[in-house]
Amino acid sequence: MALQPFPLTATGYNLNYLPEYIALRHGFFRELGLGVTVTIPTPWDGVLDALANGSATMCLGGIWVPSMYRNRVQNYTVFAQIANRSPLALLRRTSDKTDFSLSAVAGRTVLMKSGGGASVGLFFKMLLREHGVDPRGVDYIQDLDGVMLGDLFQGGMGDYFVTDNLSAQAMVARNTEVAIAMQMVTQGDVPWSVYYRETETITPEVLDAQRRFCIGLQRGIEWVLEHDAGEDAFRAELAELFPNVPIDVVVAVTNDFRRNGMWTTTSIPRGGYERWQLGLRDARLIEEPIAYEGLVDDAPSAAAQGCKCRG
C-alpha cells in the first residue's frame, strides 16, 4: 500500500519531541498509511513559509505563534500536542548555598537562550509573575545564541541561566561550578509543543490524516511512558537520537520527563491551555486569552484516544 505523504516542518530537534521520533523509528505512522517526513528550517520561522507554500502538511512548534498570528496575519488551527510541560531548567552557581526560590531572582541578571523563538522568555517571565515576582525587576540577556550564552554564563556572566533541561544537565555533568536550581518540567501543565496548520486548508481528508497521525503519536507517547529509559534497547535508541550528549544525561532527563508529565496524551488539556493564554496576554502577544475552541480542534486527538488501530 502506498503511503500518504505527510511532511512535517518543525522549529527544532528536541528531547521533548521524543515520542514522535519513537513513532517514526518504530513504524507507528507507517502502519497507519502515513509517510511522515520531517524538515527543520533555518531560521526556525521558515516553518510558516513551508505551510504557506504547501511543502509541509503541518508544523510542530510553540502555540504562542498561532495565538499571536490569529486575526492579525493568518489563522492556524492546532490539532494536537506532544509536550505537555516546559522542558527548561534554571541554572545557578554552586557558590550560592542559599535555599533556592524564585524570589531570589529579583534584582539579578538572567541569561536566556532565544534561538528557537520566544518560548523561553515567555514561560520564565510568566513563572515569575505566578510567584509574585515582577519580571520588570530582573535584568535579561537573551538575544544571543544558546551555546554562546552557556559559555558566557560558565565564564562568569550573569547570575542565572535558563536553557533546555538536556543542555543544562550536560553542563552540570562537566562543570562542578554550576547546578540546577529548578527543573521547569515540575512547574505545571502548558501545551509547550503543538501541531498546527492553516485553518482555511483543513478538509475532511486532512482531518482523517490528522486523526491517523494522532493515533501513531499516541502510540509513541505510550511506548515512552511504558519503558524506562535505562533499558538497553531504549538507551541504545537515545544514544542514536542524541549522540552529542552523554548517554547517562539523556537517560536521566528522559526519565525525569516521564515521571513529571512531559508526555501525557495528544489532546491539549484546557487548564494548561488557559494558563498559557494568560501568560501570552500578560506578555502582550495577544490582547485577551483566546477561547479553547477558537484555536484548538481536538477532534483528531479525541478520536485517537484509546484507539489501537493499525494500518
How would you describe this structure to a colleague?
With 311 residues, this protein is α/β, with parallel strands linked by helices. The chain folds into 2 domains: 4-84 and 190-304, Periplasmic binding protein-like II (D-Maltodextrin-Binding Protein, domain 2, 3-Layer(aba) Sandwich), CATH 3.40.190; 88-186, 3-Layer(aba) Sandwich (D-Maltodextrin-Binding Protein, domain 2). The protein contains 12 helices and 10 strands. The chain has helices at residues 18-25, 46-53, 64-69, 119-130, 146-154, 165-174, 204-226, 232-241, 247-259, 270-282, 292-295, 299-304; strands at 4-10, 34-39, 58-61, 76-83, 88-93, 109-112, 139-141, 160-164, 178-183, 193-198. The strands form 2 sheets. The chain has a 5-stranded mixed sheet with strand order 2-1-3-10-4, sandwiched between helices. A 5-stranded mixed sheet has the order 7-6-8-5-9, sandwiched between helices. Helix 1 (18-25) links the parallel strand 1 (4-10) and strand 2. Helix 4 packs across helix 10.
